[in-house]
Design goal:
Number of helices of chain A: 1
CATH superfamily of the largest domain in chain B: Exo-inulinase, domain 1
CATH topology of the largest domain in chain B: Jelly Rolls
Number of domains of chain B: 2
Shape of chain A: globular
Number of strands of chain A: 10
Strand content of chain B: over 45%
Strand order of the largest sheet of chain B: 1-3-4-15-6-11-12-13
Structural class of chain B: mainly beta
Oligomer: heterodimer
Helix content of chain A: under 10%
Structural class of chain A: mainly beta
Distance between the termini of chain A: 24 Å
Strand order of the largest sheet of chain A: 2-8-7-3
Distance between the termini of chain B: 93 Å
Number of helices of chain B: 2
Helix content of chain B: under 10%
Shape of chain B: elongated
Radius of gyration of chain B: 39 Å
CATH architecture of the largest domain in chain B: Sandwich
Largest interface: A-B, 37 and 20 residues
CATH class of the largest domain in chain B: Mainly Beta
Order of helices and strands of chain A: EEHEEEEEEEE
Radius of gyration of chain A: 15 Å
Number of domains of chain A: 1
Largest sheet of chain B: 8 strands, antiparallel
Order of helices and strands of chain B: EEEEEEEEEEEEEEEEEEEEEEEEEEEHH
């Protein structure tokens, strides 16, 4: 079962205000929290208790970010992201927030709900693999 | 870090019970005569009664467990891996070692699966791998390749932490127990959010549309916050208006000569907000208005339609009729108009 990105209401506003340059220019990152964001979660600073990344071996940045269009529908895509924990546990978190790290205020695009709280065991090197087979979002 | 490791080299020869966190029958003895490696192993000689020995280590969600077992003729025994918090008598992973019947097998909760044959007086390395993502385990004998992951006798909750050695006939030996934890891989497949500008969301107050000669006009999925939809459409083949959500106040349509006019799916809950539906439609082949769960709130329902081949008005639920003040009147007018037109 796939998990659909929940959008913040501010994303469409931010698009109109030239906050985002999604075609590989801006760096999109993931943040992890165990508190559900809301449609009013606008900025990284609005995320409740984002996890420190100390025990995450992998960079939270998405790679191979693209923003392309086909027949009028633009798609924001990214390569599969694999996060590996290290040392201590990484978690718990249930929500993975996508935000624009290049934007001055690190504006949020949306978030995913894993469905339950997850803790990656750093001693074992537990991994979380996130795939975007149809992209992160589409804009038609 | 696995559940625990024990090659029985540090225990004293003699009764295993009480040494190095082992507990169980005094028939399990550390001995030096039969061993897989080093100078010591554990042997259990039973007179026929089933006896057990257990040890609890670290809880491991995903990992592997390896042990060596050997039996004399007609030996029979079992190995269980449990999650102690679920009860000591609640076997989860279950391996059966049976020299008498010549097989090593596992139990998946409903049936046994043979992994290998076994003969007396030979050591067998048994590897068990388990994962928490689907609570399954797989097995390997003498490094010959793992079986497919299968359900365990009973599903574990968080992981495995306790080993039970069971000897039920003649003599069994155990040696070189080791365990490692392995990484869990969690996956999340995503679907994109759609940022189309429909359906309209809360905040828009009116939709005013004037459409001429479109083949099809469809207005769907309006969300809470809409107050009015006013539509004037001429000469279209089909007009469809569906899925209005709460917040609507009025729907006003002036439509000329569609092939069909359909107004459907007005859901419960919007009803308290919709105050009136006005429709003036000339000469559709078919006019259908169905499925309104409108019970309260609608005050007016005006429809003026000239000479459709069919007119259908169905599905109004309890309460609808008492609150619609003008429906009957307008329907009467419609019938009169139709009568006039038929002239």
């Amino acid at each position: 079962m796939s998990v659909t990105l929940s959008k913040t209401y501010f994303f469409t506003l931010d698009c109109g205000l030239k906050v985002h340059n999604l075609n590989a220019t801006d760096t999109l990152k993931l943040a992890f929290t165990n508190t559900a964001p809301t449609t009013a979660t606008h900025l990284y600073a609005d995320i409740t208790s984002p996890l420190a990344l100390t025990n995450l071996l992998t960079s939270p940045a998405l790679t191979s970010v693209t923003y392309t269009q086909t027949t009028g529908t633009a798609t924001l895509g990214a390569a599969t992201w694999t996060g590996t924990s290290q040392t201590g546990n990484f978690g718990p978190f249930e929500y993975i927030v996508v935000y624009n790290d290049s934007a001055t205020s690190k504006n949020v695009i949306g978030w995913y709900d894993y469905g339950s709280a997850l803790t990656l065991n750093g001693a074992n090197g537990d991994q979380l693999v996130i795939t975007f087979p149809s992209g992160i979002l589409t804009n038609a | 870090m696995g559940i625990f490791n024990d090659n029985f080299e540090t225990e004293s020869v003699g009764n295993l019970n009480g040494q190095n966190s082992w507990s169980g029958s005094i028939l399990f003895q550390v001995q030096t005569l039969v061993k897989n490696s080093g100078s010591q192993a554990v042997g259990c000689i039973t007179g026929g009664a089933e006896v057990t020995m257990q040890k609890t280590g670290s809880l491991v969600a995903n990992g592997t467990f390896t042990f060596f077992v050997r039996g004399i003729a007609a030996a029979q025994g079992d190995l269980y891996l449990n999650e102690l918090s679920q009860g000591a008598g609640n076997p989860l992973v279950h391996i059966n070692f049976d020299v008498l019947d010549n097989y090593i097998r596992y139990f998946n909760g409903s049936s046994w699966t043979n992994l290998s044959t076994c003969t007396a007086n030979s050591w067998y390395q048994i590897d068990i791998k388990w994962r928490s993502s689907d609570k399954k385990a797989c097995y390997q004998i003498n490094g010959g390749g793992y079986s497919a992951f299968d359900t365990t006798q009973q599903p574990f909750s968080s992981g495995l932490d306790t080993l039970f050695l069971d000897c039920s006939a003649t003599t069994l030996y155990f040696d070189d127990i080791s365990s490692t934890a392995s990484a869990a891989v969690y996956t999340m497949v995503t679907a994109p959010a759609s940022f189309t500008y429909t359906p309209k969301s809360s905040g828009d107050k009116r939709v005013m549309t004037m459409v001429t000669n479109k083949a099809t006009y469809v207005l769907t999925g309006m969300a809470s916050g809409f107050k009015r939809v006013m539509t004037m459409i001429t000469n279209k083949a089909t007009y469809t208006l569906t899925g209005m959500s709460s917040g609507f106040k009025r729907v006003i349509h002036l439509i000329t000569a569609p092939t069909s006019y359909i107004l459907t799916g007005i859901a419960a809950g919007i009803t308290a907000k919709i105050k009136a539906i006005y429709s003036m439609i000339t000469s559709p082949a078919t006019y259908v208005m169905t499925g309104q769960a409108i019970t309260i709130g609608i005050r007016k329902f005006y429809t003026m339609i000239t000479a459709p081949a069919q007119f259908i008005l169905t599905g109004m639920q309890a309460g609808f009729s008492s609150l619609i003040q003008n429906a009957v009147t307008r329907l009467t007018q419609f019938l009169a108009l139709r009568k006039i037109n038929n002239k």
